[in-house]
Amino acid sequence: MAAFIVGRLSQRFGRRTGLATGFMAGGIGAIGVVIAVVSHNILLLFVSLFIYGAGTAANLQARYAGTDLAMPTQRAKAISIVMVSTTFGAFIGPNLVDFMGKFATSIGVPYLAGAFILAAVAYILASLVLFIFLRPDPFVVAKTIAEANQKDDPSSGTICIRIY
Q: What confidence tens digit (pLDDT) does each residue in 49-95 have?
């Protein structure tokens, strides 16, 4: 459901709005998980994990933003660069679990909630960075270019996007 909402927001308002909203929801969900663990509230935990999933949905959809303005012949290269970049996060994240667990314990939060503290900070920072710096929105620009190309040659079945 979160992927659907983030996707609809991205289609209607651009990737900046959709992804920033998804990441912010993920950060709020992570904060909710920490609060649920501290207060021993299982219902809040499940609701927060559901909301936290929006961050994961946004993270998966962010990969496609790298191809919005790529030439058709360069899209595979663009998505490859994005995928290699995410490999660093997949490596670094699990290596921070012990550190974040110790940090959580030091502030009176259960050890395993430490990963959600890190996730909350990461998701909220990602949301703010995208919302502030993703200008112009690549999806909106790509859509505008595609519409202009379609008007130039409406009989053409292909759309060519050229960025100079």
A: 999 999 999 988 888 777 878 888 888 898 888 888 888 888 888 89
CB 61 within 8 A of CB 6: yes
3-class DSSP state for residue 134?
Answer: coil
Phi, psi (5° rounding) for residue 71? Answer: -65, 150
- The total of other beta-carbon atoms located within 10 Å of residue 93's CB is 14
155 has a pLDDT exceeding 70? no
Among 135, 132, 141, 117, smallest CA distance to 52 is for 117
Long-range contacts (CB closer than 8 Å, 24 or more residues apart) made by 47-54: 51/2, 51/25, 51/26, 52/26, 52/116, 52/119, 53/2, 53/26, 53/29, 54/2, 54/5, 54/6, 54/21, 54/22, 54/23, 54/25, 54/26, 54/29
pTM score: 0.82
pLDDT digits (tens, 9 = 90+) for 112-151: 999 999 999 999 999 999 999 988 888 888 888 888 887 7
Nearest-angstrom CA–CA distance, 10 and 120: 22
